[in-house]
Amino acid sequence: MMSDTATTTGGGARADGTPSPAEAAPRRRRGIHGSRWTPVLFLAPYLVLFGMFIVLPAFYGIWISLHQWDFVLPSKPFVGLDNYAALLDSTSVQFQPFWNGMMATGIFTFWSVPLLVVLPLLLAMLLHREFPGRTFFRAIYFAPYVLGVAVIGLMWRYLLDGNFGLINHIFGLDIQWTTTQPWAWVALVLVTVWWTLGFNTIIYLAGLGDIPVDQYEAASLDGASKWQQFRYVTLPGLRPVLIFILITTTLASANMFGQSYLITDGGPTETTRTAIMVITQTGFSQNRPGPAAAMSYILALFLAVISVVNFYLMRDKDASRVKKEQKRIDREQKEATS
User: How far apart are the C-alpha atoms of 320 and 318, rounded to whole Å?
Assistant: First the structure.
């Protein structure tokens, strides 16, 4: 019997002329499944849609903001940064409406984001436990989120009506929820929390399911209390989820439009007229797309800064410190060997 080494030639082929496994492997990888273009082909549909509906409109919006744009007139004079400068000039027409809208957006974000970060976490921890009907309650809390903003807005506008609304009737109240402050803000925040609570809860539930059970068991054996387990096991395990929820909730709250438009119509006295409402009315109702585009990019800049700050504050400081220390050690070893 010939040995295995005698069955191949010097070029790697077998004695009978068939390719060896080492040669056959590259051949099997040829074609579309082994090509470097395979990931690109899978990503192509998304990249095309992303480019058409996100990238191109973004650059087109910048172009509009640099012009005195009019949808119906062929002449669109280039004005440079004048539309942006007008938003910083207190004597301009759009200065006060825009910054009042930014203030309204900040008020709504300030009150809604903490509730939409903390309450879903508490609810998720309850729904993560084993009890009869757990799936039913998960579905109940998530159900409002599947409704569109038009349905939510119209439904709550009638429920919160100060004259014949069911909320005042059921609880025996006499509150003008949509036409007086601070009740208009209370109504908008509570409606938004009720509507979107389920989405964040589901995200938290997915994060809680990824935390290993043995970490809780080890903490319990070490004598850790429930609060200590939450602080040193649950929160670190949910760090990526917390970052995601905090950033997405902040962005969603800062872009609030439908609730204010349908429930309070920006009132009373335009106190709930958010930045998105100002941008929409400036661009379409007043037919001034140039200033509206400039407003939208200033709002986007604020949101980008807030997102970066949130990501920085929620980063894993221990992991960053370990990474920096490892880089320092690698640099010292490299210098020692050179």
Answer: 5
- CA dist list (Å): 256 to 112, 144, 145, 156, 250: 11, 17, 15, 16, 10
Record the pTM.
0.80
Whether residue 268 sits in one domain with residue 205: yes
- The residues with which 144 forms a beta bridge, in sequence order, are none
Identify the bridge partners of residue 67 per DSSP, sorted by sequence position: 78
Are 129 and 69 in the same domain? no
Q: What's the pLDDT tens digit per position in 268-316?
A: 988 999 999 999 999 988 889 999 999 999 999 999 998 888 888 877 6
* Own/partner long-range contacts of 91-94 (Cβ < 8 Å, ≥24 apart): 94/282, 94/288, 94/291, 94/295
CB-based burial label for 155 (10 Å; 0-12, 13-18, 19+)? middle
Distance, CA of 199 to chain centre: 12
Q: CA–CA distance from 193 to each of 59, 185, 190, 215 (Å)? A: 34, 12, 5, 32
**263 is written with which tokens?**
């429930």
Domain that holds residue 102: 94-329
